[in-house]
Amino acid sequence: MNLNFGCAVAHGGKCYLRYDDTNPETEEQVYIDAIQEMVRWMGWKPDWITFSSDYFQQLYEFAIQLIKAGKAYVDHSTADEIKKQRESREESPWRNRSIEENLLHFEYMRQGRYAEGEATLRVKIDMKSDNPNMRDFIAYRVKFSAHPHAKDKWCIYPSYDYTHCLVDSLEDIDYSLCTLEFETRRESYFWLLEQLNLWRPFVWEFSRLNVTGSLLSKRKINVLVKKGIVRGFDDPRLLTLAGMRRRGYTPEAINRFCDHVGITRSMNVIQSSMLEHILRDDLDERTERRLMIVDPVKVVIDNWDGEMEVMCPNHPRKPDLESRKVLFTKTFYIDRSDFRTEDNNSKFYGLAPGPRPVGLKYSGNIICRGYECDAAGRPSLIHVEVDFGRTTKPKTNITWVSEKYAIPVEFRLYGDLLKDDRAAIDPEFLKYINSDSEQVQQGYAEPEIQNAKVFESVQAERFGYFVVDPDTRPGHLVMNRVLTLKEDKEKGAMAPCPQK
Questions:
Q1: Which of 58, 116, 149, 375 has CA atoms 20 to 30 A from the CA of 246?
Q2: pLDDT surpasses 50 at 399
Q3: Inside any domain, residue 494
Q4: What's an example GO BP annotation here (predicted)?
């Protein structure tokens, strides 16, 4: 998408959005609408939106023309027989029937006299060719399925290999760009246009964009969806455009990434860290800051009762966004990773029992005076004393969310979908799926988070970027982690309570 639309814009050209809707069994209006929505979301505007089905009548007439020229024939071989013929380079027994017979039986196909699979129209090229695509590929097949665009006008449908080059020519396409797996089809692409004396576009193939930790094969993604391994084609772990939007990627970052990696004919795999770096820079600039706690533990102040208003900047580098008021209370939540039961690591600056103070962002200092554990042995309540005057400068400031005003949030934390990038080439790819690639946590956020809309991203101070998920409902906020901030290697899971 970036290459096609980008080239058109850069060179003052025009770009089509065309649906190659040749198979009525796989075409649904919901997919048609979704593609247009993704194109708009990415910031592109097609000069024309067309459908291959718009040209079904002309494609049918071209088929008649090929039959009359002795370049196409009706074949009654089964799908398995055709597959074996093409693999063994053997001609079909129906290949040399007369033009009159082929016209008659193609008309029977058109009238629906043949059941699905009983007859196909194949182009007559060269069954001895070293290029499998030149071995009499199928041009038409019978399918008794209504088409979302052509409705029920047809019961024979052209194949993609037959349709693509012809519609390119009919639409006066100058440049037809596709990925390298279509390179072997170039010979049959030009053969068909030559037989019909049609305009020949310039064709150029480029390598697929592969990113570590992800699957980009539509076939393999479809398996994951059908098996329920992912939530759908818009699962945040997938690098589909719908999945990336749900994960919190911005169209600006995606386009910048595509521009950065460029186009090549060499097979390569791009490190996901490059994509994340570009996205992180984009989100850092555009997102407002919020106080959010992903893995909460409760804290109570023993030497203060009350409630106070503090001012929190919406963006530290954008004073024009001003600040917002947040209420600080006696009882609040901090993240478990900011507390340890023993202060025994000189590189850990979070909260631990002892005299060392820790700062609370936009508030005072606290000192841990003790903690309580739940039945499972995990700290459940931390007792602290507060010093609003900050008589000692703390080495770090941690975030918090007041218990009284906390908004419950379902946080979904995502990692790489794959444990090994061999999944991209291994047919047994399911063994490489990371079963822990999605983790769900129940946490809290400040009240301002209620104003965030679906697909809107914010920065959870110190913890990363989060986006509102479409699963959000009234009273149930769902947020996906887009990215972490720069990783703090010393932040880890909270230690359990010591055994007595």
A1: 149
A2: yes
A3: no
A4: glutaminyl-tRNA aminoacylation
Taking Cα atoms as reference points, which of 18, 24, 16 lies closest to residue 149? 24
Vertex 385: Cα angle to 384 and 388 (nearest 5): 130
What would the pLDDT profile of 204-246 be if each residue is shown by its tens digit? 999 988 898 888 888 899 999 999 999 999 999 999 999 999 9
Q: Give the containing element (helix H, strand E) for 188.
A: helix 186-195
Beta strand extents in 446-490 (DSSP E only): 457-460, 464-468, 477-483
Amino acid identity for residue 138 in this structure: I
**Residue 29 amino acid letter:** Q
Sign of CA dihedral 75, 19, 225, 425: positive
Residue type, 281: D
User: Do residues 443 and 295 lie in contact, with contact meaning Cβ atoms separated by under 8 Å?
Assistant: yes
Walk across the sheet containing 407-414 and list its strands. Answer: 289-290, 457-460, 464-468, 477-483, 407-414, 438-445, 292-293
Rounded to two decimals, the pTM is 0.89
Residue 289 pairs in a beta bridge with 459
Counting the structural domains of the chain, the total is 3
**Does the residue 492 lie in any domain?**
no
SS3 326: strand
pLDDT at 496 over 60: no
Q: For residue 317, give its domain range.
A: 289-402
How many Å apart are CA 217 and CA 230, to the nearest integer? 14
Chosen domain end from 344, 378, 402: 402
CA separation for the pair 379, 419 (Å, rounded)? 32
| 77 and 195 fall within a common domain | yes
**Among 206, 223, 238, where does a domain finish?**
206
Residues 432 and 479 reside in one and the same domain: yes
